[in-house]
Design a protein that fits this description.
11 helices; eleven-stranded mixed beta sheet; single chain; about 30% strand; six-stranded antiparallel beta sheet; alpha+beta; about 650 residues
Length: about 650
């Protein structure tokens, strides 16, 4: 087992020897037990490590007169349980066995929170994130009572014994240590520290672009729809890569049958074919927000003296996957936007005159298109920049979900096993979570999956009431006034369903989004709203920490009457964000009117008897209802 400690000390041999030789190593601790750590106050810290096999390991905390002991096994492994004090410090903590001792310094007791999820939780103060006012926020990030622990990205198919950490372990909050640390986690710690006046420790365990199933254990996935087969495979001795390759081949075969069949030795025009400039993305050239298969074509003229010679096609990138043809013959295929393509075309396919390059591009989200590209015969280069013909084929919604590559961080259980499971020996007050983008399009599955993950984590920490607070997805993508089938709205609804669990609550970031940036910059407000939940639920502060919620929706004649449990107000004289439909299910923009501070009537001229209403139900909605404390009303439907 790979235990590490930043304070590892080498003990020298006894004086008088002819040469000073190092003895066996003294106590080694798990990687997150280090100088500068914060321990959860009034709890029990479990410390695991390695010492001299069969020896008695002693722990002497500076906050107690008591010495805690444990016996190391024949493999040297030991487990110590140490009672932690009320908030305070700094303290030292010394571990010893007959071979030597190590002392950890500057330990604080206070409140510890686990901060996890994908890129919007990972987004650093500076780094690749550059959040709002990042220069000022960084310069003023001097908080000695806030401590930061960042878990290094790692994957595993089975639970590991220890996590890997960045920076050698716990860091004191400073301009240098926050620069590449989770902005939401840091701002959350800052809010709690200001209000509670106790030390705060936050653990950054994040990985951008990862789905909830990667953060969930195999047993918890077993009963979630869509994961039974993968869970069974992970529990068995089946070769994961062999299974993946077989499944991927079946998926590719099915996709090959679904896409259009046409002569790829000629450039097509009309019948849905258009032109776009490459390098570039089709979203900005007449095909906005399209995810799926797009055919792209370009021709090159080969001089007669070069005909019959092998040709190389080079693409710096294709977003995301491709199958590339040269004169109707497949030249190669590659999965992944980050991979360069180099395809060799045999000389017998290279003819004098016009030669057609056809690329079947599969975009699975975000932008789609082709990067810089060229064809080459010997030293002769044929640039492939400029105008390409293109035609959309089938959308992503028509294609079965592609099998997840087990070599990456999106595979079920791999992040739970490597980045989370080993942490459960360290008590935490609760969890804040920001994830969801990667599960958009699978809302029906996300509902039970997210609940299973929360129960899984609570079971791991053996605390059924461990607070779990999360962020509902912000607005993203192009605004559409009436979008009843929005996949982002469906995922937000699936997120909100987790509030059915005890000690689980949600803040919405619906109003903090950016239609063109999936990483909105105002992380300060996200963290503030999260801190309100903790302060109100867990720390007894008398404050309003939830936005108004719907208490009743009732059709009444040509209107639908919505009643809230608290006063609501709009940011302008006109209330926005509502759509309404009659029994035919055809939605249109609604005309709301406020009856009193808690009641709004919804109608539309074209809907005589409305039966269904939705609020902020779109990828990037425009609703403007807030509570008296400035918290936005979350999306809802009846």
């Amino acid at each position: 087992m790979n235990f590490r400690n930043s304070n590892y000390r080498i003990l020298l041999a006894a004086a008088g020897m002819l040469a000073a030789l190092p003895s066996m190593a003294a106590v080694e601790l798990m990687s997150y037990i280090t100088d500068n750590m914060v321990v959860q106050q009034n709890s029990e810290l479990t410390v695991r490590g390695h010492a001299l096999p069969g020896s008695t390991v002693k722990a002497a905390p500076g906050w107690s007169k008591k010495t805690f002991t444990a016996k190391a096994g024949s493999d040297g492994m030991f487990t110590l349980k140490i009672a932690t004090p009320p908030a305070g410090g700094p303290y030292s903590l010394t571990f010893s066995d007959p071979d030597g001792n190590i002392t950890l310094e500057n330990i604080l007791s206070g409140e510890v929170w686990l901060c996890s999820g994908q890129s919007n939780m990972e987004m650093p103060v500076i780094g690749w994130g550059k959040i709002m006012d990042y220069e000022t926020e960084t310069a003023t990030a001097q908080h000695p009572d806030i401590r930061l622990l960042q878990i290094r990205k790692n994957t595993s198919y089975t639970p590991v014994s220890d996590v890997e950490v960045n920076g050698g372990g716990w860091q004191i909050c400073s301009p240098g240590s926050v620069a590449n640390f989770s902005a939401v986690a840091y701002f959350y710690a800052r809010e709690l520290a200001r209000e509670l006046k106790v030390p705060i420790g936050v653990i950054d365990a994040t990985w951008g672009g990862t789905p909830a199933e990667a953060w969930t254990c195999v047993d918890s996935l077993t009963n979630v729809p869509g994961f039974a087969e993968t869970a069974a495979m992970l529990k068995s001795t089946t070769d994961i890569y062999k299974q993946y390759n077989e499944t991927m081949q079946e998926w590719n075969d099915q996709l090959d049958k679904m896409v259009a069949s046409f002569d790829k030795s000629t450039i097509h025009a009309g019948n849905g074919w258009r032109t776009a400039e490459m390098p570039g993305m089709w979203e900005t050239q007449g095909l906005p927000d399209f995810n799926g298969v797009v055919w792209m074509q370009k021709s090159i003229d080969v001089p007669s003296e070069l005909a019959g010679q092998a040709l190389t096609l080079h693409f710096s990138s294709i977003d995301d996957d491709d199958v590339t043809y040269f004169n109707n013959s497949e030249a190669g295929r590659t999965i992944g936007v980050g991979n360069q393509r180099n395809y060799t075309v045999p000389g017998n396919l290279v003819k004098a005159g016009s030669n057609v390059i056809t690329v079947r591009v599969l975009d699975t989200g975000g932008d789609g298109g082709i990067g810089s590209a060229e064809a080459r015969i010997g030293n002769t280069v044929f640039p492939l920049s400029g105008s390409w013909s293109f035609k959309p084929d089938i959308s992503l919604d028509e294609i079965a979900p592609r099998p997840t590559d087990p070599r990456g961080p999106k595979y079920p259980t791999v992040l739970y096993n490597a980045m989370l499971e080993p942490l459960h020996h360290m008590p935490v007050k609760g969890v804040i979570w920001y994830q969801g983008c990667e599960n958009v399009g699978r809302a029906e599955q996300y509902n039970p999956l997210f609940k299973a993950m929360i129960r899984n984590w609570r079971n791991l920490w053996q605390n059924d009431s461990m607070p779990f607070y999360f962020v509902q997805l912000a607005g993203f993508l192009s605004p559409v006034p009436v979008q009843p089938e929005s996949e982002w709205a469906k995922l937000r609804e699936a997120q909100a369903a987790a509030c059915e669990l005890p000690n689980t609550d949600m803040i919405t970031a619906i109003d903090l989004g950016n239609p063109s940036d999936i990483h909105p910059k105002n992380k300060q407000e996200v963290a503030r709203r999260l801190s309100l939940l903790a302060l109100g639920h867990d720390y007894g502060r008398d404050m309003v920490y939830n936005a108004p919620k719907v208490s009743e929706i009732a059709p009444r004649g040509n209107e639908i009457i919505i009643t809230f449990n608290a006063p609501v107000t709009s940011t302008t004289s006109a209330i926005t964000g509502f759509i309404v439909a009659g029994s035919d299910g055809k939605y249109t923009t609604a005309t709301p009117r406020q009856i009193d501070e808690r009641t709004i009537a919804i109608s539309a001229p074209s809907v005589k008897k409305p039966v269904s209403v939705r609020y902020n139900w779109a990828d990037y909605p425009c609703g403007n209802l807030y509570g008296s404390t400035g918290l936005p009303v979350a999306p809802f439907r009846n």
